[in-house]
Structure formats: C-alpha cells, structure tokens
Amino acid sequence: MLLKLSLTGIKGRSRDYIVLFSGLVMASGIFYMFEGLATNKTFLESNTMISSVVMIFHLGTVLLSIITFVYILYANSFLMTMRQKDYAMFMMLGAKGRKIAQLIFIETFVVGVGATIVGTVLGIGLSSVVQQLLVKQLAIKVTHFAALNSSAILFTLAFFTIIFLLAAFVNAMTIVKKPILSLLKASETPLPANRKRMTLLLEVVAGVIFLGIGYLMMKLVGTLQLIALAVALVTIILGTYFVFHSILIFVLDLLKRRDKIALKKLNNFTLSQLSFRIQDYTKILSMVAMLFALALGAITVGLGFHNEVSKMTEATSAYDLVLNNGQTVSSSELEKITPTSDVAYQQKEDAATVYYDRGQFDQTPFSAIEFDKQNQAKKVQYSGEKLAGDVVAADKLRNLELPEQQTKKHQFLTSEEFAALPIQATELRLITVADFAKARPALKNLAEENLKKNPSLNDGVGNFTQKALIYDMYNALFSGFEFMGFFLGIAFLTMLASCLMFKILSGAKSDIQRYSMLEKIGTRRKLLTQSIRKEIGILFLVPGLLGVIHVLFGLQMFKTLLSEPYSNIWLPFLIFFVLYFVYYLLTVWIYTGIVMRRAD
C-alpha cells in the first residue's frame, strides 16, 4: 500500500521529479564514467600512457562525490517542501508519523535508485564515447578496454545507494518532527526583506570587502599558497552570501524607487515579487553562484590545459626531430615529411672527446630554446665560435647527443682539422617542419626508429629530445585534466541549474493566486508571461554574472600552471551559457505551465 501511495505521489509531481531524476542520471552517469576508466586494471596495465591520468579521474570522482552529496540533500529538501502539504493532510486523516516516514523514505529511495540505474547505463555509453575521444586526443592505440566494468558498476550503485539512504532518512525525520500547522503554512510564509537601512548598508560594505580580499588572495596564491586558498575560500563564500543578502536587496529597492523603471508594464510587480522572497533565496543563489564558478572554471581550465600541450611542446626543443647517427635513417621515411630545415652536423669521437666541424655551425647556426626573465621561451642561434667558448651553449648541443657522448668533452675544429682525423664520421641530424601537427605521426615513427637504432636512448632520455614523444607525454597528462574539467563542468551545471529550478518551482504553487488575480482584473497574459521571464531571468542571471566574476579572478591561481589562462576563454563561456540558457528556458516553461494553466 505504501509503495503504491509513494508511486502515486511521484506521479503527481512528475515534472518536479523529472528535473531531479535528470540531474541524478547525469551525476551517476559521469560518476560511473570516471570510475570505469580509473578502475579498469587490465586496460591500464596494458596502456602505460593512459595510466598516467588515473589520479586525475580519481580526483574528479572525489569532487563529483562531494558536490553530488550536497546536491541530493538540497534537491530532496525542495521536493519535500512541495510535498509537505500532502503529508500534513495524511497526518490530519490519522496517519501515524512512522508511516509517513516510511512513505517519504520509499519515495526518495525509489527515485534515487531508479536514477542511479539509468545513470549507470548512460555512464556505460559515455565511457565508450570518452574512450574514443581519449584515444583520438592522445593519438595512440589502446587494448583491453571495456565500457562495461563490474567494479565501477558496484561502486557507483553502492555510493549512490548509501547517499539516498541518508537523504531518505534525513527527509523522513525532518518532515515527521514538524508540527502539522507548520507543514500546511510553510509555503505561504516567505520571509520579507524588511531590514534596517544601516544593517543593510553594513552588509553591502562587508560583501564588497570580503570579495575584494578573496580576489586578492587568488592573485597571491603563488606566494601565499595554502593560506591564500583558505582565506579566499572563506571570504568569497561570505562575500557571495552578502551579495545576495544585502546588495541585491539594495539594488532591487533602488530600482523600485525609479518610477521610469518600476511603473513600466508589470515591473513593479516583478520587483516586488523578488524583494518579497529574496531572503528565502539567499542560500540557494549563493550556492548556485559558487557552483556556477566551479563548473565554468572546470571547463575553462580543462580546455586551458589542452591549449598548453602545444605551447609546452614547442618550448622544449627548437627542432621537431633529432636523429642520432642520422646517416642510417632510411630515406623513404623522411620522404613522408616536408622539412623547412634539415641540417646534419658531422661528429667524430674517441674515448674522451666528441669532435665537430666548426665551419658547419658557422654556415648553419645551431638553434636552441632559452627563457627570458618573464619565463617566455624564445629561439636563439649559436655559431661554432659561440659553442666553442660558451659552456651553456655547448650544453644545449650536448642535450641532443647520445648518453655516452654527453660525458665527453667537445672540440670544434676547422674543416681541414676535422677531415684529417682518422675516425669514421657520424651525423647528428636536426629537422624542423612547417606544420608540426600535420607531420606529427611521421615524426613519431622516425623518433621511435631513432630509439631502436640507438639502444642507449631507451632508458627514457630519448623521450625528452623528440618533440613528437614529448607531445604524447604532455597530451596524456593534460587530456586527463581536459576531460575531467569538461565532464565535471557539465555535472556541476546540471546540479546547480536543477537546484535553482527546484527552488523557483517550489514557490510556483503559492504564486498561482497572484497571477490569477492579475488576470481577473484585466492584465493581459502576454504581460504576465513577460513578468515571469523577467523574474526567473534575474534569478538565473545574477548568480551567473557573479560566478563569471569569480572565474575571471580565479584564473589568476592558474598562472603558474597555464601560460595564458585567459586564452580563447570565449569558447568555454559560450558552451556554458548555451547550456545554462537551455535550463532557463526549461524553468520558464515549467513555471508558466503551473501558474498560468491554473489561472484559467
């Protein structure tokens, strides 16, 4: 009987539960995806490059777990708010508190477990898609990958089951302990924002000061490190709260006093609606702003790490390909690339010395990468005379030699002296290409051939002289951050937008009478719809704008990791705002359907 009653209650609030259900499906699906990649031992052991990003996916799981836990408790509390009148009626009809608790428990648990199962199936599909993206991004072959991972399925089901058990228990206890009259009147008693002007002014000043301190700490995180992070976290959370608890009220009050704005159409009604309930929205708007910053920041930083791969690779070497003993390389492989520069420096060596023809360096100077005081990479060139007299310059050449050559002295001889040495010559062949990205597959094949023909490079030293192999190493690491940032950003967006939807929709029932009265006195439906769009638009826009400001200042923290944290920032912002706008339209549609349908 209780199960049937619970399912009937879920059906009666199907729109609200669908919003919760979709958010939970997305969260559990992404959670499975992270764990499916990070716990596939056979896959990781057979693909050592992929295994370097395992900790990144585990980190993403931890962050997603924390946010998911908060989201579920918060979202369920809104659903309980909308259902509490029904529970109060059951109590008035004689239902015992224990039965009501069981009813709430079943409703919460059924929705949660159902969403988790669907989300896990979605996660299996996401894992397959991400595997394809990961392989394409890293440009490598992987083996033993399975989108269906029993360990990840069990871990996902166990984690979400425990969370829903806790959420169901908290919801049941919260409702049962409230008096019946409080449950009946709870949705009809929002907190008006009537406070003393001096208190409001002090909170406005405090909010600005807290945000200023937080933003300053994010800029100084490279110097103060953990202290700056801790201070920034506390002050930004407090500042965000005061923005909505005081500054927004102050601005709304100011707009209401401007007749040109307030008396136009239904603006006064819209502003009064917001002013009347704004204190009740303070916590949710603060949480949404913080989650918005986390979500947008995750996507922005993730894509920022992707942009760093090429930049960091270019900063490691002036040459795209280094061929030790280059005279042995097959010409057929070299024909696959189009060099813009192909120079072969002759070498001769004995037990203690490596000899070079100075004239070759004078004719074609040796190129190397140096960093200026701002840590910016630049390409410099060294002549034979410079290499002979400058230890630092000679060391840059030494870095491209075979390990057994790097311990020997250098001697730069004239062409006649070099030719007179009775030692067989070898070549250090250095190549650059016009388009590294296009030539990278062929360059990688040549680099791997160079490792095979020079076994002493296989201890790992050779990986740091070949730009194509360096690219793969950086890409393996930063692609993990990129995917983690993208999927965490989507998960956070789903949760924050869903929470804001819950809060707005939870007040829709009490707004029916207001819109009905306006329509009865002759207000056109078009104006009522415009008022709804404006009101919900402000509730979406304000935390979004504050979240953007948080991100713009927060990117200062990544200047030590990203050379240009603000590069191409428009792309993640565009992606995020399109998705955020879709949620806004969905909220307007559901809310309008509730208040306008019943206003007939």
TrEMBL record:
InterPro entries: ABC-4_Integral_Memb_Prot, ABC3_permease_C, ABC_permease_BceB-typ. The chain crosses the membrane at residues 17-34, 54-79, 100-126, 146-170, 200-218, 224-255, 284-305, 483-505, 536-557, 569-591. It is a multi-pass membrane protein. Coiled coil: none annotated. Residues 62-179 form the ABC3 transporter permease C-terminal domain. The keyword Transport applies. Signal peptide: none annotated. Keywords: Cell membrane, Membrane, Transmembrane, Transmembrane helix, Transport. It comes from the Bacteria. The keyword NAD does not apply. It is found in: Cell membrane. It holds the Pfam family FtsX. Belongs to the ABC-4 integral membrane protein family. This is FtsX-like permease family protein. It comes from Enterococcus hulanensis.
